[in-house]
Amino acid sequence: ECMMHCVPGSITSNTVTMPHGLVMHEESVPFVCPSTHAGVLNVTCLDGFMAIEGFCGINCAAGNMSTNAELLQFGSIRHAELRNLTCPLPWFGIVTIRCYDGFVRVDGGFCEKACNGNSYEQNGANVTILAMRSSTTQNVTCRSIFPSLTYSMHVVVSCFNAALEVSGVCYPNCNPGDLTDNGAAVFYPAIDLGGRATVFCSPSSQFGSVTLE
Predict the structure, then answer these.
(1) Which pLDDT tens digit goes with each residue over 94-134?
(2) Residue 207, class by beta-carbon neighbours within 10 Å (0-12 exposed, 13-18 middle, 19+ buried)?
(3) DSSP 3-state of 206
(4) 194-200, long-range: CB within 8 Å, 24+ apart, which pairs?
(5) Whole-number average pLDDT of the chain
(6) Which residues have C-beta within 8 Å of that of residue 166, sequence separation ≥ 6?
(7) HEC string for 108-168
(8) Checking DSSP bridges between strand 136-141 and strand 125-129, what pairing results, if any?
(9) pTM for the full model?
(10) What is the pLDDT of residue 32?
């Protein structure tokens, strides 16, 4: 069977036209896209027809893009190329962008804003939160405002994109004291929040014991 060679002419990929000479049947010729585009075409002559694999993608011009209300600048990017952009302070994070055929798109990441420090009072305790980065947590001790109160717990503070979220509540421990149980006096020591203590009924252990929590 007689097969036809490809006569001199041109090929077109994504508006890019490139000339070619005589190409023999089943011969493959690589074409490098011009500087305005990126890519390599693999062209094969098949019975007089130029079969093209690949395409010329348009490179992206320099510009800017918005992520989470922050404007990021970037330089020119070749088609299919990835570029990491570092978020400027007071933001944190890295945004990965990709150029695809003249358009820039976000491939991953975004700019997160840190949380400012804060403090508040709760149930006789002061909670002081330090400034923290987004996507981090800190354990904050409940500090007594009054000498008569003690605390043995903490709250967990999370930051995500400038928003604080507090888990837990400051409750004071139980101070030493006394109570009456079935006519007997019971004197108990200081008990931490969530703890328990077993104490004897007065005046002696022969009167039994009670467990307090």
Answers:
(1) 999 999 999 999 999 888 888 999 999 999 999 999 998 88
(2) middle
(3) helix
(4) 194/152, 194/153, 195/152
(5) 89
(6) 127, 155, 156, 157, 158
(7) ECCCEECECCEEEEECCEEEEECCECCCEEEEEECEECCCCCCCCCEEEEEEECCEEEEEC
(8) unpaired
(9) 0.59
(10) 93
What is the rounded CA–CA span in Å between residue 161 and residue 51? 51
Single out the residue of 133, 140, 137 nearest to residue 169, CA to CA: 140
- The arithmetic mean of pLDDT across residues 37-60, rounded, is 93
Q: Residue type at 50?
A: M
3-state SS assignment for residue 189? coil
pLDDT at 157: 95
- And the tokens for 55? 């395409």
How does residue 29 score in pLDDT terms, banded at 50, 70 and 90? very high
